[in-house]
Write a structure and sequence with these properties.
By secondary structure, this protein is of the alpha+beta class. It is built from 7 helices and 6 strands, in the order ααααββαββαββα.
Length: 174
Amino acid sequence: PLYTLATIFFQLNDKIYGSQWGFNKLFYEIDKDFKSIVVLPELFYKNLNNQRKKLTKRMQTVFDDAKVFDKVVLLELKEKDRDYKTNINNNLQVIYPSFTIFVFFENKKEKGYKASCRSQTHDLVKLIDFLKTKINVQGGGHSFAAGFFVKKKEFDKCKNLIIENYEKFRKWIY
């Protein structure tokens, strides 16, 4: 769809030309140069193909490290994998449709992990609130999708708390 292409187009060209370039193309030059927006430049396709190759290569190996406990998936990834967050979460939801999923992305700058969580069966907000009572965790969200940050020194304890207590936060599904 055009929305997806436009988003990718602006992300790639923002790095090359700056964000103002894309907005100028879209809002001020559309009547003068519609072809350059609709028929995307060769550089865009080259960058898009490179991104696609990197994503495909990474997606082939990313799930090898997933740890599955009963109905919980824990996946610990490097900071660079954060670029693929949406793809990773979407693929995990397809592979493990009724599981509660925690993807932890390393954050070297803050010396910890940022977690991206998805669940159709468990209340993630209540689970995060529970974690806050046991360890130093910052985060929130809503019952189906949430996120939090945990320091590296408490990371193993955090994973154990999730595995041992997630069942307490099951939603009633009718």
